Amino acid sequence: MRTAPRLLVRYLLSVLLILAAIPAHAATLFPPTATPAIVSDQDTAAVVLGMRWQSSVAGTVTALRFYKGAANTGTHVGRLWTSTGTQLASATFTGETASGWQQRALPTAVTIQANTVYVVSYHAPVGRYSANNNYFTSVISAPPLSAPVSAGVYRYGTATGFPNQTWQASNYWVDVVFVSGTIPPPQLPAVPIMYPIRFTGNMQLSWDYTPGGGTPTEYVIESNIPPATVWTQAATTPYSGPTSTWDVSNMTPGAQYCFRVYARNNAGSSPASKPVCATIHPGTGLACVPSTCKGE
Q: pTM to 2 decimals?
């Protein structure tokens, strides 16, 4: 009898996580609480789903979004286009949840003009996409964004196809994260902290958002193995709230590893944080900073 309350709590937590991923100054056409009537369509053909949209003010698109059901599996690639099919940006969705809204920051934000139609899309390699028929029978607005009549578009085939066909004014639940005007670059993140995971060769890196600048769209993690002095990119992770984490795996026991993090958004990048260095202790498999490794 406690299943329903638990499901409600999980749903509310998922909504809060989605809200945290959308900066306060950003706009989307569909709110994080919006859900489709058809969560997973029975169609199993590979297809590109999209939406025509525009903004009443100039600004930048910083991320792409789409809603998925649990049956919509495989690798999803999002794209931003002009109204005539020129690709402006693309991004592969990573770290997806089983269902719900998925969001991926663009590698570089795209500047768009006011009152100009664009198309946002994603590729569903096994079909089973989310949809509402007879949805765009009139203009849908969430200022400054809007979508025209019959805004939903599709195209069967490969991931690179430009969607330009319509069916029964359908909505395929694809969206953008839009920032009007300009925003400042983010502040540098707080110094990361290393936490041990109780399996040899694994740690978790954790750091906090620093207020004062623009909200990051993502963080870049860089690594270094002393005595080397060159920092190399190890991973990127989308901004998802005040505290971010990244799991470090396959570390060699006894070797020292150093990491640092910097934030970026469409306005630029922050300086890198101060580095944190740690070692996987050969005996315990736990992480320790250099000053505490001896004698453990």
A: 0.59
